[in-house]
Amino acid sequence: MAFARLNGVVLHHELRGAEGKPPLVFSNSLGTDFRIWDAVAGRLQADYRIVLYDKRGHGLSESTPAPYKLADHVEDLAALLDHLGIDRAAVVGLSVGGLIAQGLTALHPEKVAALVLCDTAHKIGTDAMWNDRIKAVTEKGIASIAEAVMQRWFTPAYRSPENPDFVGYTAMLVRTDIDGYAGTCAALRDADLTESTRAIKQPTLLVVGDQDGSTPPDLVRSTAALIRGSEFRIIEGAGHLPNIEQPAAVADLIANFLKSVRYV
User: Does the global pTM surpass 0.90?
Assistant: First the structure.
C-alpha cells in the first residue's frame, strides 16, 4: 500500500504494470474504492502503467469534513500525478470519477492525453436529489439508501444475496466514510461542467451500461454530443458499474480506443 499527503489530505494509491509504459489513470465512483477496477486493470497492465487511487473520503484515503467541491477532487488527482512524476496520462473516470476526469481536463489540460468517461455526464442529478441523499446518509447512515443504490448500480441478474460479489460491493458502499460520501454528494450537486466539457479537445470515448439507473444511456449520449469527435458505446448486460459486471468488455473498449488514438 502507498500513501502520500497531498493538499493536506493523505491519499491511498497504487501503481501496477511495468515502468516506462504509457500511464493510464482510473478514478472511481461515489461510495467505492479503487478495487472496483481490479478486473479491468488486470487486463490492461501489460501494456500500461496503471494508476489507481482512492479519492478523499473513500477507501483508505483520509476524509475531511463535508462538504467538498469538485475542484477538491480534481486538484487531489493533479497533485497525485505530480507526486508520481506523471506529466501526461490517459484518464478513465467512472460516475463522479468521470466528472473529476472532465474537471482535470478543464483545469489542467496539459496533463490529459485522452479520456474514457464511463457512466457519467457533464451534470448529474438535481440539487433536490443530492440534498435528499445528503440528509438521508447524515441522519440515518449509508445503509438506509443501500438498496436503492444497488438497484442503480447493478442489473437484476447480479443483485442476488447468493452472489458473494454483490454482497461484498454492498459492504463497500455501506462502509464508506459519511463525510466522504456526503461531501462528494455536495460536489456532485454543485458541479455543472457543460461549458468546460463542450471545450474538450482531447480524444474521448464515452461508455455506459445499457441498464444504468444513475446515468442512463441517453444522459451519457448527451454528454458525448458536447464533445466534438467523441465516440459513444453502450455495454450490454451492465448497470452503472460495467467495470464490475462486464470487465472484459470495458477493458477491450479502452484498449481499442487508446490504440486508435495512438496512445500506446
Answer: yes
